[in-house]
Write a structure and sequence with these properties.
Radius of gyration: 18 Å
Mean pLDDT: 78
Distance between the termini: 32 Å
Helix content: under 10%
CATH architecture of the largest domain: Sandwich
Structural class: mainly beta
Strand order of the largest sheet: 8-7-10-11-1-2-12
Low-confidence stretches: 98-154
Order of helices and strands: EEEEEEEEEEEEHEEEEEEEEEEE
Largest sheet: 7 strands, antiparallel
CATH class of the largest domain: Mainly Beta
């Protein structure tokens, strides 16, 4: 397990415990929200894989700095300093007998203004698969012990509530690729797509490890963003860096094609 200790800004002195899966960091969307105008809405991801901790830039405006160097991706060492926007954090490895769940520990003096440690509410179903296909558990584990500031709500929740909805369900049907015929459903505000350790794992060598991300603001405002992937993204045949999605759109990620739909959910459905 590891943690981030904030060295400056509104969160100075606070620490965020990183779970054993992945943590998305951003200003508006993510597991760890950082109140810094120079931090992008979705800025970076920190994950444990290949026996170590890694940070990866998710196409942010101002980049990710490890020490004094801007990095697209880097393996983190105990004690290294990270900078996102103007916010500086110290990465620390925590003894393994600590709780493995992601969460936040706030100084009581700043508890009212601290970041939100979000538990992504994810539902995935495999409606059907081709005979002989292997079922893959490709969803990041939940974090039941996270401490959440109940005085605040996630941006997606605020927008959905304003529209009378409780949440948004994203459906991605794989219409081409090794998992053709499967349907994945998500209820969360960011969906990371890639070949390894992402919300939606696509078994395709043309898909980058971190290929694209879907950002959900409400059922009518959902965006696909390419994460500097090797082979890019297409929506209905057009290559895009970022695109607003509509129901029925077909997303080409590597050699896989996904059919997209979104709908608002109300209390009786959520």
């Amino acid at each position: 397990m590891a943690e981030l200790v904030f060295l400056n800004g509104d969160l100075e002195g606070d620490s965020f415990v990183l779970g054993s899966g992945r943590t998305v960091v951003g200003r508006q969307v993510g597991d760890l929200l950082v109140p810094d105008t120079e931090v992008s809405s979705i800025h970076a991801i920190i994950s444990f894989e290949r026996g170590g901790w890694y940070v990866m830039d998710l196409g942010s405006t101002n980049g990710v700095y490890v020490g004094e160097q801007m990095r697209l991706e880097a393996r983190l060492k105990d004690g290294e300093e990270l900078r996102l926007g103007k916010t500086r954090m110290r990465f620390r490895v925590v003894p393994s007998d600590s709780d493995q769940s992601g969460g936040i520990e706030l100084d009581p003096a700043t508890a009212e203004t601290g970041p939100i440690a979000r538990q992504g509410s994810v539902e995935a179903t495999l409606d059907h698969r081709d005979p002989g296909e292997q079922v893959i558990d490709d969803l990041a584990p939940g974090r039941p012990n996270e401490r959440v500031d109940t005085q605040k709500m996630k941006r997606a929740d605020l927008v959905a509530a304003a529209a009378g909805a409780d949440s948004v369900q994203i459906t991605l049907e794989i219409v081409e690729g090794r998992d053709r015929g499967s349907v994945r459903r998500f209820k969360q505000e960011s969906i990371l797509i890639g070949r390894l350790n992402t919300d939606l794992v696509l078994r395709d060598s043309d898909v980058s490890r971190r290929h694209a991300i879907i950002e959900v603001f409400d059922a009518t405002q959902v965006y696909l963003r390419d994460l500097n992937s090797t082979n890019g993204c297409r929506v209905n045949g057009d290559k895009v860096i970022s695109a607003r999605l509509q129901n029925g759109d077909e997303l080409e990620i590597g050699r896989c094609v996904l059919r997209f739909s979104a709908r608002a959910l109300y209390s009786e459905e959520s």
